[in-house]
Design a protein that fits this description.
Layout: H1 3-16, E1 22-28, E2 31-37, H2 52-59, E3 63-70, H3 80-89, E4 92-97, E5 100-104, H4 122-133, E6 163-165, E7 177-180, E8 189-195, E9 198-201, E10 209-212, H5 215-219, E11 221-227, H6 236-246
Length: 247
């Protein structure tokens, strides 16, 4: 990021305090420029809203590459509403907090992803689904066929990251993580239950997709896990993303 651009954005954010600032980063020719917008939200200290006119004005100046806003009284993480807005806007988000800019890349569509182990795989899909619902889970470096090298990456991390194993697997609900054991001694594949006996998952050499949870996948199920704080999340956001790319 160009230092001059960063300084301009941080300066604008400080000038707008205690209100949240907002604006766009636009590629104008070969130059990245910041175009500030008016925050027209009712509660400007905790939210931001950009008018359609400001969006059109920014769009007329070049290619919009990122949406900028600030958290003058908050943490350097996107709120659930921010994540919903990012999904609709389909833009990277640049968040100003404590005089620093934190960049949150846009989440690619959950369906139709090309498989690339360690970059775009079943765990990536798991993380992104929950990110859209309002939860952040760490990434971890994982070699291909890690389960053949004595690692147990799913079972070693599920409880640590706030999940508990279901005793009654017939009580599966939307958002539950289904761990599957496919040609391995440990669970090495994850799917998300999305309702109506359907799961979302990403298998090697295949595009990410929805599948009926029966037959092959049911046979290879190792365990089902529920996020303990699931009631604080909003699974309608990732489900809406799925619906959007199914239409």
């Amino acid at each position: 990021m160009l230092q001059k651009l960063k300084e301009k954005i941080v300066s604008h954010a400080k000038h707008q305090e205690p209100h949240e600032c907002c604006g766009f980063v636009v590629l104008k020719g070969d130059e990245m420029v910041f175009i500030p917008c008016k925050n027209q939200a009712e509660d400007k200290e905790n939210h931001f809203e950009i008018s359609p006119e400001d969006f059109l004005q920014a769009n007329s100046q070049g290619k919009i590459t990122a949406l900028v806003h600030s958290h003058p009284n908050g943490e350097p993480v996107l709120s659930l509403l921010d994540r919903q807005t990012q999904l609709v806007a389909d833009l990277d988000f640049w968040l100003v907090c404590n005089d620093e800019i934190h960049i949150f890349p846009k989440i690619p569509p959950l369906l139709g992803r090309e498989f690339n182990h360690g970059v775009m795989d079943c765990y990536t899909l798991f993380r992104d689904f929950y990110y859209l619902a309002g939860a952040d889970f760490p990434d971890f470096e994982r070699d291909d066929y890690w389960w053949e090298d004595g690692f147990n990456l799913y079972l070693d991390n599920m409880a640590t990251h706030g999940f508990e194993r279901l005793i009654d697997e017939s009580a599966v609900q939307i958002g539950d993580v289904i761990l599957m054991q496919v040609g391995a001694d440990v669970p090495n594949h994850a799917a998300i239950y999305i309702g109506d006996q359907m799961v979302l998952h990403h298998s090697p050499r295949r595009l990410s997709k929805r599948d009926l949870y029966d037959g092959y996948w049911f046979k290879h199920t190792h365990s089902i896990w529920r996020f303990k704080q699931w009631s604080k999340l909003d699974f309608t956001v990732p489900l809406n993303s799925l619906a959007l790319h199914l239409s």
